[in-house]
Amino acid sequence: MPVPVLRPSRRALFGLSATLAAPAIGRAAAFPERPVRLIIPWAPGGSTDSQMRVMAEIAGKHLGQPVIIENKPGARGTFAAAMLHGQVKPDGYVIGQIHQGVLSHPFMTKSATWDAAVDFDYILGITGYLSGLVVRAEAPWPDWKSLMDHMRANPGQVSIGTSGVGGASHLVMAQLMGFERATMLHVPYRGVAETTVALLSGQVDAVADSSGWAPHVEAGRMRLLAIWANTRAKRFPDVPTIKELGHDVGGIAPYGLAAPKGTDPAVLATLHDAFKAALFDPQHLAVLERYDMPVLYMTGEELRAWNAARIPVERELIRRLGISFE
After folding, report:
1. CATH class of 131-228
2. Using CB atoms within 10 A as the burial measure, which of 89, 116, 187, 240 is most buried?
3. Fold matches, 36-129+253-321 and 131-228
């Protein structure tokens, strides 16, 4: 007796097709499908802006979508953190730079802000700033000691520009003024691009900031008196560190990239891999060398842990210096 052939009905075939298609319909869309915005909380033209632009261009090639730079200067370099903290979706399409000033910001204002240890999803650590104190080449102070002697004899008469109240360089200088028993006239700006113009144009007597001043020092337009780093800078081997001058402050603090809290771990991994590849690309390494910025690679979790450990130090420093905006 022949075995009957069973032919499925149209309804059954439709159901089978729907079942087979279901995984594809439910699968998350590939990331990224459009450009990624990278928020730089500093004015164009500074060391961070230059470094990030090269890194973003390279990372975009690995992502298959462009990484578009958006400069948001002001507020002591905290606009990127503010945007990531509740202003944009946690989808990976808006990321930003998180630096040491973001850690200290909540302790200088009464307004509710973020806890940098838990309120961002970190992507990776990248590098850190070489910072120092520079004067114009024609300034009457050949070294750190001569400037400090002058400032002690003329309290509040020497104007020093930084990238904002409560920023890393301002905090270092505030500590150093206490150690040296000197008084400065602090003039805050929105980034090293602005402090550089201010010094060259004579608006301020000195600048304490990250290494956007390096090309001007090499060109003979500025004189570098001291740096706050762990060791002397390779490009400026004759310039002492603050630690050599007897003050155990400063050092290179890492910064990196973060996304809003709640970003898909797979998206974070994609961003991490693209920016890590860009970090170690020869073209990007050449930019870091130009500004004496070391490679300080960390995974997102390692950067979060470093920030978490640093936050109590920043809190105590702000309390001791009495810096407040309100």
Report:
1. alpha beta
2. 116
3. yes
What was the pLDDT predicted at 249? 85
User: Which residue shows structure tokens 């201010």?
Assistant: 198
- Cα distances (angstroms) measured from residue 268 to each of 9, 69, 98, 114, 141: 46, 18, 15, 20, 48
pLDDT digits 0-9 by tens, 103-114 = 988 998 877 689
Q: How large is the average pLDDT for residues 217-226?
A: 97
Domain ranges of the chain: 36-129+253-321, 131-228
Place of tokens 């104190």: 133
- Give the span between the Cα atoms of 150 and 134, in whole angstroms: 15
Using alpha carbons, select from 184, 183, 182, 211 the residue that is nearest to residue 195.
211
pTM, entire model: 0.80
DSSP-assigned letter for residue 152 = H
Q: How do residues 159-177 score in pLDDT, each as one tens digit?
A: 999 988 888 888 899 999 9
